[in-house]
Amino acid sequence: MAFPQTRLRRLRRTPELRSLVRETDVLPRHLVLPLFVEAELEGSRPIDAMPGVSRHSVDAAVAEAGEAAALGLGGVILFGIPSAKDEQGSEAWDDGGAVQLAARAIKAAHPEVVVITDVCLCEYTSHGHCGVLRDDGSVDNDASLELLARTAVSHARAGADLVAPSDMMDGRVGAIRRELDAEGFAEVPIMAYSAKHASAFYSPFRDAADSTPAFGDRRGYQMDPANGDEALREVELDVAEGADIVMVKPALTTLDLIWRVKERTRMPVAAYQVSGEYAMIKTSSMDDRALALETLTAIRRAGADIVITYFAKDAARWLAT
Ligand code: PBG
């Protein structure tokens, strides 16, 4: 039936009618708050590239996690800033590292908070790459797997509810799964950053986490943003290796992939609205609240069950009003 019998505006007439037929919800439980933890810090220190986001001491991270719980967020994801970096990134698997200390403290203070930990080496290596290097400066995939698995086990030992490898080495989900199982953590799920594009939208994060590569870039391991079919292959491999949740990243540049991954796999799908997406909205002269909620809704509409976003706390508050 066409116009004039059909008038789509009829159901747009009032806020109540629009609410009645709204297809997509963004709820606090869908949102995960990233937290940057630096154990040496006193309190919190703002990150210049990300207005409104700070690095936190362990105590401050616990307070943030408490707020996340009070707001009904789905969880927090922890990133660590180490006290020292080395070639291998050894603080990544230090049981006394920033992520491990924060995970333990958060689970002790707020056991109900879902604590996810980012598993990668780039914040911890002196060269800033996500794996260990060969003599020629290239990233050694297979040698990195053991270190990543060791890191994931250390996070699990600290009480992480979920580990989230973001390094993009081939085979790391399987390596982490095997090591977790062998160490008695068969019940700790893996949220894999499966389709992670090499993106300019990560640059504020690299200031936040001090993880800019000292030379070169990440295109040798992160995906070419031009490739969608390959993104599906990455996801399928991670599922075959034991991923429990798959992630697509960034979010706004990959709405088509979020959709395809959801359709294809029926897995729980996470999308990461990354630092540059946040900063772009936050520093624009437009209405940041409206932009944040519109983009989060679009990411959910594309098929994301979970959205990792620096807007998580703000969005929960906005959604409640
Ligand atoms: C670590 C990691 C990065 C992000 C999440 N985990 C940085 C990168 O890959 O360069 C980016 C998150 C963001 O930009 O908000 N590998």
Write up this protein.
This protein has 321 residues and is α/β, with parallel strands linked by helices. It has a single domain, classed as TIM Barrel (Alpha-Beta Barrel), CATH 3.20.20.70. It has helices at 15-20, 58-70, 98-109, 141-157, 172-182, 203-209, 229-241, 255-265, 275-282, 288-302, 312-320; strands at residues 31-38, 44-46, 54-56, 75-81, 115-119, 162-165, 191-196, 245-249, 269-273, 306-309. Strands 1, 2, 3, 4, 5, 6, 7, 8, 9 and 10 form a 10-stranded mixed sheet that branches. Helix 2 packs across helix 3. The protein is globular and about 70 Å long. The protein starts with 14 loop residues before the first helix and ends with a helix. The model has no long low-confidence stretch (mean pLDDT 97). Bound molecules: ligand PBG. Ligand PBG is lined by residues 118, 120, 122, 130, 166-167, 202, 205-206, 218, 274-275.
Mean pLDDT: 97
| Estimated structural class | alpha/beta
Q: What is the CATH C-level name?
A: Alpha Beta
The helix content is 25-40%
CATH superfamily caption? Aldolase class I
What's the total count of β strands? 10
Task: State the domain count.
Answer: 1
State the distance separating the first and last CA atoms: 38 Å
The biggest sheet amounts to:
10 strands, mixed
CATH topology: TIM Barrel
In angstroms, what is the radius of gyration? 20 Å
Percentage of residues in DSSP E strands? 15-25%
Low-confidence segments, given as residue ranges, are none
Unique ligands? ligand PBG
Helix and strand element order: HEEEHEHEHEHEHHEHEHHEH
- Architecture per CATH nomenclature, i.e. the level-2 architecture: Alpha-Beta Barrel
Broad shape: globular
* Total DSSP helices: 11
